[in-house]
Design goal:
Elements lengths: L13 E6 L4 H13 L3 E6 L7 H14 L11 E6 L13 H9 L4 E5 L8 H4 L2 E2 L3 H8 L3 H36 L3 H40 L2 H47 L1 H5 L5 E4 L16 E6 L2 E8 L8 E9 L23
Parallel strand pairs: 1-2, 1-3, 3-4, 4-5
Antiparallel strand pairs: 6-7, 7-8, 8-9
Helix pairs in contact: 1-5, 2-3
Length: 359
């Protein structure tokens, strides 16, 4: 698939070669790299034919890919899998599935150079670039150093010529613009005359301004006589006294209004307070928790009740024969206040019923 093939690096720093270390292939590759552009070469020795050849080539490709950048062994920027020519049986290791899959999964761009130009193996389809011979693979891996140097020198000369021509054009343009500018003496002649006239007018203007300010100061000083100041002071004092008297009267009216409102609120509080009801002979009944008792329902025998009269409190305990209805209340002891206006007395049960009475 051409879409998955990656471009080869322009000038790899390190090249990894997977081939036999004793054959002519590695010597051809090293010789060609030295002629074109010497690079650092790492050789992973493998057997290029035989039963163990496919496993060793696969391990070599995976081993180069597992090297970490910046490690003790530099990671190659380009891989070359190379072998010389031979019969179909000799080249069969490079048709094995494991070799083809390893070449396709390689993260490092890979050049296959197996056999001669007429030989074709499956690794040629999985690699990023196919070279007809190992020597051609070395030529694909690096450019010619002399050509690069010549190209750089030519570009440098062209750059220098272009910069020189640009500087010359700008210098000529600057000289032309300079000839069109007026001379400095002509530029400053008219402003110099204006400055001289302004200096003369400034002296006259300062004298006239000083005279006008002096006259204005004399007029203001005349208005600041002692009689005028005394009159203003007396008027201000009288106004202050008037304001103080008005403030005193307003404060008295406000206090009177507040007193009336406070008296009305007190009378309203006395009217709404339950103490007024107690003063008319009634009593307030509370349970032992201090909550008001609103009826006899739910009061059992022996229940403690607190009776509040006008001016005193008493503690009472209910008595009676019934357990589901309230019985009579017997006074136990006063809770507060030395005198009680009313006392709690026992009454007999009404004939014909067993309902107890509170008073």
């Amino acid at each position: 698939d051409p879409a998955r093939k990656r471009p080869l690096p322009f000038l790899p720093a390190t090249i990894g070669v997977v081939t036999s270390p004793s054959g002519a292939v590695i010597r051809d590759i090293l010789h060609r790299l030295c002629d074109r552009f010497p690079r650092h070469v790492l050789v992973w020795p493998v057997r290029v034919q035989g039963e163990q050849s496919a496993e060793e080539v696969t391990a070599a490709i995976k081993g180069f890919n597992e090297l970490k950048p910046g490690g003790p062994v530099p990671r190659p920027d380009l891989l070359i899998v190379a072998r010389g020519g031979g019969s179909l049986e000799d080249l069969w290791s490079f048709n094995e599935e494991m070799v083809v899959r390893a070449a396709a999964a390689s993260e490092i761009p890979l050049i296959s150079a197996v056999g001669h130009e007429t030989d074709t193996t499956l690794i040629d389809f999985a690699s990023d670039q196919r070279a007809p011979t190992p020597t051609a693979a070395a030529e694909m891996a690096v450019p010619v150093r002399a050509d690069l140097v010549a190209r750089v020198l030519d570009n440098a000369r062209r750059l220098v010529r272009g910069e020189t021509r640009k500087v010359t054009e700008l210098s000529a343009r600057l000289e032309g613009l300079g000839r069109g500018l007026p001379k400095p003496d002509d530029l400053f002649a008219l402003p110099g005359q204006r400055l001289d006239h302004a200096s003369q007018r400034l002296g006259l203007g300062l004298g006239a301004a000083a005279s006008a300010k002096r006259s204005q100061l004399e007029r203001i000083a005349g208005r600041l006589s002692g009689q005028v100041l005394t009159s203003k002071l007396a008027n201000g004092h009288q106004r202050t006294q008037d304001l103080a008297a008005r403030a005193t009267r307003a404060e008295q009216r406000h206090l009177t209004d507040l007193g009336k409102r406070l008296g009305q609120a007190g009378r309203l509080l006395d009217t709404l307070s339950y103490q007024g009801v107690l003063s008319r002979g009634f009593a307030l009944v509370r349970d032992k928790n201090g909550e008001p008792v609103r009826g006899s329902a739910g009061i059992e025998q022996g229940t403690e009740l607190e009776l509040e009269f006008a001016g005193s409190d008493k503690l009472a305990v209910t008595t009676g024969p019934s357990t589901d209805k309230a019985g009579t209340a017997s006074t136990v002891a006063p809770k507060a206040a030395p005198k009680a206006k009313r006392s709690v007395s026992k009454k007999k049960s009404a004939p014909g019923g067993d309902q107890g009475q509170l008073f």
